[in-house]
Give the backbone structure.
Amino acid sequence: MFDLNLFQKNLSTDSIGRAIQYYPELDSTNTKAWELITKNAINGTVVITDNQLKGRGRQSNKWISTPSENLTFSIILYPNYQLNQINHYSLIPGLAITDCLIGYDFQARLKWPNDILINGKKVGGILCESKISGQLIQSMVIGIGLNVNIQKTDFPPVLQNATSLFIENGERYQLEILLANICNYLEYRLKNVNTANSQLLVWENRCAHLNQTVTFHFDNQIINGTFKGLSPTGQARMLIDNKEFCFNSGELFD
């Protein structure tokens, strides 16, 4: 059972997490968040569940979670920012989560576009969905899954490249405090979204595959190239056959 008082005690935000919708079980926190948007949920609302049955990852992948051992939640935002800033908004959650994990002494790294790594293994993932009106980002749902107290034996065999905070250092974490800290860092990052250039530099410094050869899936193609960092608008810069290309989306293979 989620302890709302413990969460609020550790929250220091103005908006992110000030409204929270807790459900013992949900198919998907992102799906529920979009439903709440139609009912005028306020900016910064957090939707969290103990047990997510049909969590969605990027490229229609399924996010597998163990009940009450991990964080599975979504955050509702109404950015009202220009469409060309959408990549900034999708990269900022990864920065906030790594901010938080670094505060817990983890060497957290980022894998483009939205995976969180520790020691080269995936500990978390982010799915950003948005609705556009004209050239403005009207509404956005940030879905986050973070493996916290799950043990290695709880992962299915197919997930050999996954890890958790517990696996990495043998400590269990209070989910409510961890969530509050992520919200605190996320609001700080969002309040400074206009300092995008410096935030993109931080992202590059935390990138696990900067200047490395990568293989990724884009628009039904498998592409090999060197990941060179981020463009000023947050696109991925790839060097392919000695020519640089920028990509808004894609999926890197492990």
Q: What stands out?
A: DSSP finds six helices and 15 strands in the chain. The radius of gyration is 17 Å. The first strand starts at residue 20 and ends at 26.
